[in-house]
Amino acid sequence: MYGETGAQMRTELAALLRQHRVMHRLATDSPTERAEIGQQILRFRQAVVVWSAQAIRAAQPLTFPNTPRKPADPFRATNEHGSALRELARALEFARDSSKTRAASSQEFSTPTGNDLVEHWRLAARAAALAEHDTAPDQAVHLTAAQARTIAGDVAAISQALVVLDRRYRNTPEWESLAGCDRLGWAALATALDVSLGQPDYSVDQTGWRPRTKPIRGPAKPGILGVLQAEHNLLLRLQSLPDAMNLRLIVDSQRVLSSQLVPFAERVDPVLADQWRARTATYSRIQRELRNIGGRLGNGTGATAEAANAVSRMKSLPSSTVIEPRMLGGIQTLFRRLDARISGVLEAGVESAAFVQRVTVPRLVSGDGHLVHPVRERFVPVARAADLEVIQIARRELCPAAQVVVASPGPSRVELHAALVHRPPDRPAPGHAPHL
What is the CA radius of gyration of the chain? Predict the structure, then answer.
């Protein structure tokens, strides 16, 4: 995620900004060795510059100025807004294209250097290489304008850090300064000021590339781990729409599983036990309402098998077993995701007419001599999903309104901004003791 890669970049650059006396930290007296270390640092820096140029271009189409648009002036050649961000993008691309240093290889990213100074550069470059997946164009299309401005502010702070470090490393043998360093510094400062006028949206840290979740294959895990394994696989198998019969079996498995887990939760977390009692009652009502729902579209045999595995493994668990709080938390996380997925399956099945409702059709009873006349029933599509009681229960019980969580900037952004204005302590005059 961008929150992980971006935080690591900012943390490592903040640590570099607090390190002074660069020649002393290179830990060598040979100019040739210092030049080799300097070239390695340049390769790591180039990776950060490459990511910065890519990220600012990905965020630029989504940002908009914080000041109201002025009337068009016919005596001016252009009246465009957002010039600070565009100037920063051009400055970063100029620095990237003008550099004679190639970016570091994947082997350099993964090989520790043994030098504390160079190690910070390596970790920052590795995070920048991974962050290219988080801010790629196919990921950036899902960003909001406020999230794009937050990325622009992060790129501006990182660009300022690169400018400061470039000035600090200029005495390194064969050092290559950033092309257009002054231009880059002023553009980064202007962009940071422009972005700070609005309200940043730090929920962008939850976006980006995520590894694909895979089922846990192999034999059943022992104890409660086997239940977690089956529930995890059930969640993945539910990506495809099951038919009505298999959906009823899956819902019943969640009812049974919640009911049997209550005694184990009471020993550790009574509040969680009460929540699972309520979940049992919810799935009991859903199970009753699903009796009037039919439909043969879909499959869901794999999901039904995993649901049966979870119930059978839960029943074989000894009653004296003590489940750790960490395991209970994992079960609760899977329960929440399954509740949301089952609610989504119900909504999608009704909207696509895969699930139909059973209704009673009135009929005329003729005097044919039979004592019992069966009720005539038909399955008909549902006009609106909200008309079904099962949908109302799912919306009200399985997917309640989530609380709005205000995302914080995180410690890495605070540390980087503090490091940008950091100044080394004054050295004591000769013959004077330092102040304590």
Answer: 31
pLDDT at 139: 75
Burial code of 204-214, b = ≥16 C-beta within 10 A, e = fewer? bbebbbeeeee
Structure tokens, 435: 């102040």
Distance of CA 313 to the CA centre of its chain: 32
3-state helix, strand, coil in the chain (%, to 5): 60, 5, 35
Distance CA 239, CA 410 (A): 33
What is the full DSSP assignment across 138-182?
A: HHHTT--HHHHHHHHHHHHHHHHHHHHHHHHTTTSTT--PPTTHH
Pull the structure tokens for residue 173. 């043998």
pTM to 2 decimals?
0.72
CA distance 165 to 162: 5
**Is the CA virtual torsion 231, 235, 241, 247 positive or negative?**
positive
Residue bearing tokens 């929540």: 275
What 3 state SS string does 283-310 have? HHHHHHHHHHEECCCCECHHHHHHHHHH
334 neighbors 229 (Cβ within 8 angstroms) = no
Q: Which residues of the chain have pLDDT under 50?
A: 65-68, 74-80, 434-436
Q: Please tell me the predicted confidence (pLDDT) of residue 31.
A: 80
Residue ranges per domain, the chain?
2-67+80-201, 224-361+372-398
**b/e string for 289-298 if b means 16 or more Cβ within 10 A?**
bbeebebeeb
Amino acid identity at 35 = A
> Which pLDDT does position 367 carry in this prediction?
66
Per-position DSSP letters for 313-345, written without gaps between them: HHHTS-TT----HHHHHHHHHHHHHHHHHHHHH
CA quadruple 279, 281, 284, 288: dihedral, nearest 10: -130
Q: Put the strands of the sheet holding 356-361 in their side by side order.
A: 293-294, 356-361, 376-380
